[in-house]
Amino acid sequence: MNAAMNHTVRNRLVATICCAMLLAMAVVPEVRAQASAESATVETLTPEELQYHTFPDQPAPDPPSIKDLNVSQQYTLSRQRREFMALLARHLGVLSLKGSIEDLKVLQAVVDRNVIADDELYEWQTMGVVFGDLLASQFDLGWVSYEDDRGVSRALRFGKTDNFVFPVTLFSKRIRFKESIDVQAIYDALAMDIKAFKTLPVAPGSRSR
């Protein structure tokens, strides 16, 4: 009798284990399929797009505050220009810039000759200021103070429109995210954006980066 009972218990235990295994085999593909579907719908953003991306559950930010540069911001820009020119003189023997697109070759030489180390983000920002001056002169843009929920930035603005370019951190961000720098290509891409918002009606709040 005991042997028969033990045999019955073993049979029930084996049956239970088999059922559990079958359920697991049925559930795992479903989980994998769900995970695959979710991963397929994940939006991929570049670091710069992420900075201005609004997530579905994120409340709409307050509109930015745009002002003329204050004295401190003007002084900081002037200091950064001087510091970058001193860097050009030390490393490339360049004592002045022409204020034309020919200056792009000088800026590319800074990149190609590793004049600025990858961890010298402030120095990359001084290059961004000089690059911004070139954009301002070529496309009739003006420096302004741009303040939003992320803080205060120095930006270039076209007239009194809501179209902005943020050149100061243009190179430092690319270096931080290990991106290569083609100064001419960056200039050409921005030139297209700027020409577009100068000739076509653009929705308020648009930005060029």
Please provide the ordered H/E string of secondary-structure elements.
Answer: HHEHHHEEEHH
Overall shape: it is globular
**Count of helical stretches:** 7
Q: How many domains, as an integer?
A: 2
The rounded distance between the terminal residues' Cα atoms is 84 Å
What profile does the largest beta sheet have? 4 strands, antiparallel
Integer average pLDDT: 81
Query: Would you count the extended β strands for me?
Result: 4
Using the coordinates above, name the CATH class of the largest domain.
Answer: Mainly Alpha
- Note poorly predicted spans: 1-6, 22-41
CATH topology of the largest domain: Four Helix Bundle (Hemerythrin (Met), subunit A)
The radius of gyration over CA amounts to 29 Å
Strand content: 5-15%
Q: What level of helicity do the residues show?
A: 55-70%
**Side-by-side strand order of the widest sheet:** 1-2-3-4
